[in-house]
């Protein structure tokens, strides 16, 4: 029996490791050019053959589905930078080969896999820095971006986060960290503004709000931002937070969580969830006939187009903040072209996080090009003082504030309607009218 | 932050009117999930009881079965319930091959060797699945039982879970009858009790081990087909369930099939009720706390021998 208990302990240990993502071998970096040494702080306009940047993503583990897509988006950015695309002339670095100010040096992204594990994200960041990358991008999950960017800060290497949305990331006073995506602070305010719009224009009568969130950096901060905004502003405008429902990161079922949400009976539910969990939630909403007037999703699983593929018509009427809607491609030729490249790699349309990670590579590469240097200080100086053209965003540009947050809101509200992500708010960029309240499950079809 | 309803949150609550119904619903959910955990556990406990081996790739067998059901559905429009025999037979074969190719060579080595071998197999299968089928989340949302519900008053039960629960009971009883009533079953029992004596009695223990591994695979293969109707399918989908299956097996008693069933039920109820009463973020903590208490009081598990 003792031996069985010893074995059991070993099982628990190994299983925990497995779930934490410690078990798998780390992703080998893509083939690197051996001759390129770690560039020392270069003062003269550097002429190197290859500029290397590091990308840390969850390429295996629970969020691998998303991580692999984000890698494809980054590769599209790399291809655009390294190739010649006159038709994308408005996109920085697209019309010439490589980085023109550095002797048309090619950009090379070295990918590393953090498996959704914060500790591994940090060690992979350090490994990439030791390999001499000029900057870092990634890491999708805020819980991983946090330690990875902390490591970058120690080494004075710029870190451009694409889609990580925890507000806390830009509240740490880091000098070498910026983030393209709207943080959950900004996104929460947008959610409430959207609810006000629904109340004013569509008599939605939404007053009570609940938050369902994954119990990690991303979810907890989203919840805290709702609490903050209700206290500071939207409470006075008639909104009330009636309850919060956290759930474990590796959740096998969400029956109890959905019962909690049902018993809170909130008019609107804010979700901070990834693709696996939000899929389970929607199924349980249907099973238990839970239909709040509105369900709004932070940047995460809902924005992944697999959400619509998996759930079919059940995915309709959910909403969330996103930087991308395929319905807007007709108005945005650059975005349409980028989407075409991405689709050729993945078979799917872009989504918000993918576009944000795409833009993080472009921002970092353009900053290196403008700085004409691989020195971290020179690059971050450019990043913080430049307004970057971003014709692939509805707002057209990226500009970071003193804390490193992109102050030009890159996203808008989208709602799934007939399997499509329609832009529904702000009104001036909308491609469809919002459907509110969400119809009861037995009144669909 | 205090919420308006914090004072009457489920922890302190008002058990009146609709709250009774919610608790009843939670219990129903807990029991159904419990049967599903049991379904995954039965195969695991067999190997554990008979061979003293922890099959770390058990979750990956489940995952492969779920993918099999998915591909049968998307390529041939075959409902997972109809594909169930295919999944069962396929994983039976994979189980036998696992024994012949890997376990047979390490069975006489110290316990950790076999454990690490199955761990390696688990990593291989998971990464192979990611390579072959991408890490995308797949979902079968229009099988013959998906999305259908049974309403008992205000209690709503998903048909797919009910089917899985009924199958879990049938499977458990079938495996118990097989072990108790058939010659092969008796040979399995004899081998589990004492391999060397069984060998002296003329039992081909290698064959028995292969059958046991296959049987375990068949159980988890059936579980995978049933779970594919309501659970997302991705390379790591089996791992989540296998952790709870390990606990269920240890809590019920090593190698005890009935114990695995009850262990699963305890886990299902503990996470559902505990999660609702104390907060959903604690639901797995409660499961593991109960497990720790059980092994303190009964180190052999509830039904251990």
Note the run of SSEs of chain A as H and E: HEHEHEHEEHEHEHEHEHEHHHEEEE
> Strand order, biggest sheet of chain A?
7-6-8-9-10-13-14
Low-confidence parts of chain A: 16-43
Oligomer: heterodimer
Describe the global form of chain A: globular
Biggest sheet features of chain A: 7 strands, mixed
Shape of chain B: globular
> How many helical stretches of chain A?
12
Instruction: Give the helix proportion of chain B (percent range).
Output: over 70%
User: What is the name of the CATH class of the largest domain in chain A?
Assistant: Alpha Beta
CATH homologous superfamily (4th level) name of the largest domain in chain A: Response regulator
Rounded mean pLDDT score of chain A: 86
How would you portray this structure in words?
The complex is a heterodimer of chains A (445) and B (305). With 445 residues, chain A is of the alpha/beta class. In chain A, 39% of the residues lie in helices and 16% in strands. Chain A has helices at 2-20, 64-82, 118-130, 142-155, 184-202, 217-234, 255-264, 275-287, 306-311, 333-346, 352-371, 376-385, and strands at residues 50-57, 106-113, 136-138, 159-161, 177-179, 208-214, 240-247, 268-272, 294-297, 319-322, 388-389, 397-398, 412-417, 420-425. In chain A, the strands form 3 sheets. In chain A, strands 7-6-8-9-10-13-14 form a 7-stranded mixed beta sheet, sandwiched between helices. In chain A, helix 2 (64-82) crosses helix 10 and helix 3 (118-130) runs parallel beside helix 4 (142-155). Chain A is globular. The N and C termini of chain A lie far apart (57 Å). Chain B is mainly α and 305 residues long. In chain B, helix 1 runs antiparallel to helix 8 (205-227). The radius of gyration of chain B is 20 Å and the shape is globular. Chain B contains 11 helices and 2 strands, in the order H-H-H-H-E-E-H-H-H-H-H-H-H. In chain B, strands 1-2 form a two-stranded antiparallel sheet. The model of chain B is unreliable at 4-9 and 11-15 (pLDDT under 50). The interface between A and B is large, with 61 and 66 residues.
């Amino acid at each position: 029996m003792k031996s069985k208990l010893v074995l059991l302990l070993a099982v628990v240990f190994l299983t925990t490791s497995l779930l934490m993502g410690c078990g798998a071998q780390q992703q080998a970096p893509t083939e690197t050019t051996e001759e390129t040494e770690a560039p020392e702080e270069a003062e003269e306009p550097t002429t190197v053959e290859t500029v290397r940047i590091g990308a840390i993503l969850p390429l295996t583990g629970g969020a691998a589905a998303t991580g692999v897509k984000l890698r494809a988006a980054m590769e599209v950015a790399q291809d655009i930078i390294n190739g010649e695309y006159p038709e994308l002339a408005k996109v920085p670095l697209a019309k010439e080969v490589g980085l023109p100010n550095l002797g048309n040096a090619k950009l090379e992204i070295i990918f590393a896999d953090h498996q959704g594990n914060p500790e591994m994200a940090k060690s992979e960041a350090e490994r990439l820095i030791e390999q001499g990358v000029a900057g870092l991008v990634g890491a999708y999950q805020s819980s991983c971006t946090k330690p990875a960017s902390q490591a970058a800060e120690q080494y004075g290497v710029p870190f451009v986060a694409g889609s990580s949305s925890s507000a806390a990331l830009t509240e740490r006073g880091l000098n070498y960290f910026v983030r393209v995506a709207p943080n959950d602070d900004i996104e929460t305010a947008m959610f409430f503004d959207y609810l006000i719009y629904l109340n004013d224009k569509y008599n939605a009568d939404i007053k009570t709000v609940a938050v369902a969130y994954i119990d990690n950096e991303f979810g907890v901060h989203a919840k805290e931002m709702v609490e903050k905004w209700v206290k500071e502003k939207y409470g006075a405008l008639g909104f009330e937070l009636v309850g919060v429902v956290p759930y474990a990161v590796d959740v096998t079922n969400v029956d109890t969580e959905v019962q909690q949400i049902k018993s809170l009976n909130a008019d609107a539910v804010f979700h901070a969830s990834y693709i696996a969990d939000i899929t389970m939630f929607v199924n349980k909403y249907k099973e238990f006939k839970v239909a709040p007037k509105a369900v709004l999703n932070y940047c995460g699983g809902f924005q992944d187009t697999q959400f619509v593929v998996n759930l079919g018509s059940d995915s309709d009427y959910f909403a969330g903040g996103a930087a991308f809607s395929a319905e807007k491609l007709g108005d945005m030729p650059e975005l349409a072209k980028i989407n075409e490249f991405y689709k050729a790699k993945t078979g799917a349309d872009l989504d918000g996080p993918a576009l944000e990670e795409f833009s993080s590579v472009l921002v970092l590469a353009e900053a290196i090009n403008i700085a004409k240097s691989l020195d971290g200080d020179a690059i971050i100086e450019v990043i913080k003082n430049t307004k970057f053209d971003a014709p692939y965003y509805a707002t057209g540009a990226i500009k970071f504030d003193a804390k490193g947050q992109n102050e030009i809101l890159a996203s808008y509200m989208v709602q799934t309607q007939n399997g499509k992500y329609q832009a529904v708010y702000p009104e001036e960029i909308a491609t469809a009218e919002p459907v509110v309240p969400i119809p009861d499950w037995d009144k669909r079809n | 932050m205090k919420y308006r309803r914090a004072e009457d949150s489920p922890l302190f609550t008002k058990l009146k009117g609709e709250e009774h119904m919610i608790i009843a619903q939670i219990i129903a959910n807990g029991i159904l999930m419990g049967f599903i955990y049991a379904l995954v556990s039965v195969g695991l406990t067999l190997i554990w009881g008979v061979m003293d081996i922890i099959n770390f790739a058990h979750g990956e067998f489940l995952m492969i079965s779920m993918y099999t059901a998915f591909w049968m559905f998307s390529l041939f429009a075959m409902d997972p319930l109809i594909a169930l025999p295919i999944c069962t037979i396929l994983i039976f074969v994979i189980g036998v091959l696992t024994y012949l190719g890997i376990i047979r060579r390490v069975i006489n080595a110290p316990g950790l060797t076999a454990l690490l071998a199955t761990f390696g197999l688990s990593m291989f299968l998971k990464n192979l699945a990611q390579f072959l089928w991408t890490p995308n989340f797949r979902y079968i949302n229009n099988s013959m039982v998906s999305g259908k519900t049974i309403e008992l008053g205000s209690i709503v039960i998903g048909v797919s879970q009910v089917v899985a629960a009924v199958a879990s009971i049938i499977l458990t009883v079938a495996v118990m009858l097989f072990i108790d009533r058939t010659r092969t079953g008796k040979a399995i029992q004899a081998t589990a009790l004492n391999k060397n004596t069984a060998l002296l009695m003329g039992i081909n223990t290698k064959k028995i081990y292969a059958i046991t591994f296959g049987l375990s695979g068949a159980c988890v293969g059936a579980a995978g087909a049933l779970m594919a109707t309501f659970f997302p399918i991705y390379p790591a989908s089996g791992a989540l369930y296998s952790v709870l299956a390990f606990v269920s097996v240890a809590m019920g008693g090593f190698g005890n099939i009935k114990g695995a069933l009850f262990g699963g039920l305890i886990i299902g109820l503990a996470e559902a009720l505990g999660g609702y009463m104390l907060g959903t973020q604690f639901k797995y903590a409660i499961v593991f706390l109960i497990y720790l208490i059980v092994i303190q009081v009964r180190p052999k598990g509830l039904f251990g021998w």
